[in-house]
TrEMBL record:
<keyword id="KW-0862">Zinc</keyword>
<feature type="domain" description="USP">
    <location>
        <begin position="150"/>
        <end position="447"/>
    </location>
</feature>
<feature type="domain" description="UBP-type">
    <location>
        <begin position="5"/>
        <end position="124"/>
    </location>
</feature>
<dbReference type="InterPro" id="IPR028889">
    <property type="entry name" value="USP"/>
</dbReference>
<dbReference type="InterPro" id="IPR038765">
    <property type="entry name" value="Papain-like_cys_pep_sf"/>
</dbReference>
<dbReference type="Pfam" id="PF02148">
    <property type="entry name" value="zf-UBP"/>
</dbReference>
<dbReference type="GO" id="GO:0004843">
    <property type="term" value="F:cysteine-type deubiquitinase activity"/>
</dbReference>
<dbReference type="InterPro" id="IPR050185">
    <property type="entry name" value="Ub_carboxyl-term_hydrolase"/>
</dbReference>
<keyword id="KW-0863">Zinc-finger</keyword>
<dbReference type="GO" id="GO:0008270">
    <property type="term" value="F:zinc ion binding"/>
</dbReference>
<dbReference type="Pfam" id="PF00443">
    <property type="entry name" value="UCH"/>
</dbReference>
<protein>
    <recommendedName>
        <fullName>Sad1p</fullName>
    </recommendedName>
</protein>
<keyword id="KW-0479">Metal-binding</keyword>
<dbReference type="InterPro" id="IPR013083">
    <property type="entry name" value="Znf_RING/FYVE/PHD"/>
</dbReference>
<dbReference type="GO" id="GO:0016579">
    <property type="term" value="P:protein deubiquitination"/>
</dbReference>
<dbReference type="InterPro" id="IPR001394">
    <property type="entry name" value="Peptidase_C19_UCH"/>
</dbReference>
<dbReference type="InterPro" id="IPR001607">
    <property type="entry name" value="Znf_UBP"/>
</dbReference>
Length: 448
């Protein structure tokens, strides 16, 4: 309380004036020792815990709680007196204050501790940073993690969202746009989405995993995300459409990077007489190409879960690469192969009473590379479906179906390694064995 003591002894008004000017630049740095970064969590909704207001909210950097205001009688002011907690951060302006004295810490950017807190609330990047990504980073407990390849809490409920957020944050043109720009003026949806992606790539995480419960809750309550029957494909398509509606720039990046086109030609009876007259030709754009698996039921004779059928991915693709009509007299032809080709393997019959239990468990064989119509692709991400195995009754859904869980496998080009993200855990995986899982979605990147 050096500043206050000085004030008591200061004689003239002039001196008081000088002190007033100096005060904001000389906060009591001893207070900074009371800051506990381990208690800070900026993934939660930024509202005052007393008034529930989202306006003018400060985080107490000693206990991590959010309080409104700075003026006398405000929740933050009262908290500082009652609890003897003195260092606060305004969550919108990212300015630091000492309360109740109401002194701004003006040179906070010279203090590493405060900088790291600012970065945790709002990570920022420059082009040069991105060149070194992904890189090994250390959290507050000195645990090593690879930025971009991080886990998430609450996977039992939100694993579908984790998979999709990881996958889109690994599409480099999209990632770079999100990391290098500010979206404060672009509406809440884009702002919140960009924050998730900025945090996924943060090299300065306090903990090596994130929580996006708050983001998904926001999507459900404010953006109309239907929480029934959600899987990663549904969520990805929903998110892509939402992005296109909210940002012209991002729409153009998505169209450039992810939109493919397929020509669908339906033939009439004439085909049988070898007169190839098409009766109907359509060009359909797509974000995700659905590949149908051959019919298989684990409950039929001769089929057991231990003896799952396998099919090569190239065989599934012949529908789109073979110019001969299918049994329904339709020819599918890929006319635009995007930079990121996203496949969906159709495992669930949504009309079934138990879509998970009765799903198609056929294994899809693939390697890390694929050639489609003379274009080379490299597998970047593999989202797999896992059934939560448990005898516990509440692990099943209300109608007795099994429960789905999603695990994301991501390729790190730098180390040429596969990393699996399951909940908060990340594990290295053998690329040769990835196909032994129930692949549900894949992202392939075009190679130059
Ligand atoms: Zn506090």
């Amino acid at each position: 309380m050096e500043v206050d003591n000085k004030r008591k002894h200061s004689g003239s008004e002039l001196e008081q004036e000088v002190l007033k000017k100096i005060r904001p630049q000389e906060p009591n740095y001893a207070y900074l020792e009371t800051v506990v970064r381990e208690k800070l969590d900026f993934d939660t909704e930024k509202i005052c815990c007393i008034t529930l207001s989202p306006l003018n909210v400060y985080c107490c950097l000693v206990c991590g709680h959010f309080y409104q205001g700075r003026h006398e009688k405000s929740p933050a002011f009262i908290h500082s007196i009652n609890e003897n907690h003195h260092v606060f951060l305004n969550l919108t302006s990212l300015k630091f204050y000492i309360l109740p004295q109401n002194i701004q810490i003006l040179h906070g950017n010279k203090v590493q501790l405060l900088n790291s807190i600012k970065f945790a609330v709002y990570p920022t990047y420059c082009l040069k940073d991105l060149e070194s990504f992904p890189k090994h980073c250390f959290d507050l407990s000195n645990r090593v993690y690879l930025n971009g390849f991080i886990g998430f809490t609450n996977a039992a409920t939100y694993a579908y969202a984790h998979s999709v957020l990881l996958v889109i944050s690994h599409m480099v043109p999209l990632r770079d746009h999100f990391l290098l720009n500010h979206f404060d003026g672009q509406g809440e949806f884009i702002k919140r989405l960009s924050m998730c992606i900025k945090k996924i790539w943060s090299p300065k995480l306090f903990k090596p995993y994130l929580t996006v419960d708050n983001f998904v809750a926001y999507l459900k309550v404010k953006e109309g995300l239907n929480s029934n029957l959600i899987d990663p494909r549904f969520f990805l398509l929903w998110l892509f459409n939402k992005i296109c509606l909210n940002s012209k720039q991002l729409k153009s990046i998505l169209n450039q990077s992810c939109k493919g086109k397929v020509k669908i030609a339906e033939f009439g009876k004439e085909l049988e007489r070898s007169i190839s007259v098409t009766s109907n030709v359509k060009i359909r754009p797509f974000w995700v190409l659905t590949l149908d698996l051959p019919e298989f039921s684990p409950f039929e004779d001769g089929n057991s879960v231990d003896n799952l059928p396998q099919i090569r991915i190239t065989k599934l693709l012949t529908k789109f690469t073979n110019s001969k009509p299918t049994s329904t007299n339709t020819v599918f032809e890929l006319t635009r192969l995007p930079q990121f080709l996203i496949f969906h393997f159709n495992r669930f019959d949504c009309s079934s009473e138990h879509p998970v239990k009765s799903r198609n468990q056929t294994l899809v064989e693939f390697s890390g590379e694929l050639e489609i119509l003379h274009v080379k692709y490299r597998l970047k991400a593999n989202i797999i479906h896992v059934v939560i195995k448990s005898s516990c009754a509440d692990e099943k859904t209300a109608n007795g179906d099994e429960r789905s869980h999603w695990v994301t496998q991501l390729y790190d080009e730098k180390s040429e390694k596969w990393i699996e993200v399951d909940g908060i855990n990340t594990t290295e995986r053998d690329g040769e064995l990835l196909f032994l899982n129930e692949t549900f979605m894949q992202v392939w990147e075009k190679q130059d």
